[in-house]
Amino acid sequence: MIITRDSGWLSVNQTTVQDTSSASQKSIIRTTIHSITEVDGKPGPEKEEIIDEPVSGVKVELQSFFLAIKGNDDGLGDPAGALKDVAFIQAALNSEGQLVDLSQ
Hints:
The chain has helices at 57-69, 79-94, and strands spanning 2-5, 8-18, 25-39, 42-54. By secondary structure, it is α+β, with helices and mostly antiparallel strands.
């Protein structure tokens, strides 16, 4: 998935990497952020940041959502935030490459 903005873009991919604690591969979600800041009103150098997180799957997301409904804050967000996540996923699945106003 690639998300673009005026001052950069980010990509989110699932990939595998070598597990440093064993000889096996592990699945991760890799987010690569490319951002451009203005310098004296002109585009400056592009900055790249890579964030790797282990795949935790739908189970963890649902667990967090149901805990939030019960009123237990796990620090990952609240039910309204979960609904925004659902809206984002729905827009990604249905956008067909067109711009989507997520506030709608």
